[in-house]
Amino acid sequence: MNVFKFGGASVAGAEDIKNVLKILSTQKTNLIIVVSAMGKTTNALEEVCNHYFDRTGEAPALLEKVQEYHVAVTLELFGNREEEIFRTLEKLFSELSKILSGEPSLSYDYEYDRIVSYGELLSTAIVSAYLNKQGRKVKWVDIRKYLKTDTTYRAANIDVELSGQLCRKAFTFQDTFMYITQGFIAGTLTNQTTTLGREGSDYTAAMLANLLDAEQVVIWKDVPGIMSADPKKYPHTEIIPKLSYREAIELSHFGAKVIHPKTIKPLQNKKIPLFVKSFTQPDEHGSVIRELDERLKLPPIYIDKDDQLLLTLTPRDFSFIVEEKLSEIFGKLAKYRLKLNLMQNSAISFSFCIDHNEAILENFLCELKEEYKILYNKNMRLITIRHYNEETIHSLIDDKDVLVEQRSRLTARFVIRTGDEKKSDLFEF
Ligand code: ASP
Ligand code: MG
Question: How much distance in Å is there from the Cα of 42 to the middle of ligand 1?
């Protein structure tokens, strides 16, 4: 059995969904298809949710746009409104409208999950109806019944034991060769909807593969495979045909966006290979992440993280930054769920990079400012070069303003200033 995952871009329009059919039509093994919300639907539903939660009154109008988009794509696929799928869409959208006509609860995260999850319910309903109509028999599964999580809304943790039991009962392949189900969403024991974190469909695919002992996972993307750099930013890029699980985990830790960071572990544990392939060139080899014994010679791989904050904390009493102080700072980072993207300490200061999140920054800094003088730079870019050599470093940073530099045997990292250097970007909190 194989697991295929189609991301938002691969089901964004009618032509894309037809292309999914084309890819599936050559498949002969048992298959579970995991699908994300169409195009940018998750962003749009996030907006709907925010307006609902803030009671601006604009949520219904925004929802209507989402509905128009889904209906338009469906109409293009089916050509007429008589099909059952239009009733299904109406039902799903009227459920959403009903939520919006009520009062939001006090939990934003809970509201978020129950609203945003419709993106995947809609996309799978449409794709499923289309495949069946075209004679590609596929069974639609509501994954919320079988992938069970705790109640950490927006970042739910999967109950592996229970989900394994339930999924093995749901995906038996007795009456079908092919199932279609939602990425990103799941359910609690009491059937509340949860989500696994943005871009979490890859993780769903990996978990299903793990729980059901799949032979392989294929992630179909709008890039030809795992690239050595973002082609939009770097002039010379190449496809990396083979990577070890370990390398892939390191890359996604440093911020490579091709795969969701939690995806690799469940596959590595069961030695299931993960293919990343282009949905526009399905016959090309793409990339594979798998167990590899040999030490591969990899080209330099560039990973950019934009919109970084570079903070420097200095104790106001000029005491040293020792372990107790660091553990205090780490505690605060954990409390605000801020991921340390890079850190460096000296005797009396501690510098680190985090993603810029305006919503929590002030509260976070308030907790530190009694004890520390806080300086920070906004709009920094953190560049990681895996498998660097001197030449790649020179060509990257020679004309840049580097604020922090770190090198280990395999990895070089630089925090650089972006944009207009004259515009002062140093702040004191
Ligand atoms: N639709 C969700 C998102 O955009 C999940 C995914 O695409 O993997 O975050
Ligand atoms: Mg998506």
Answer: 6
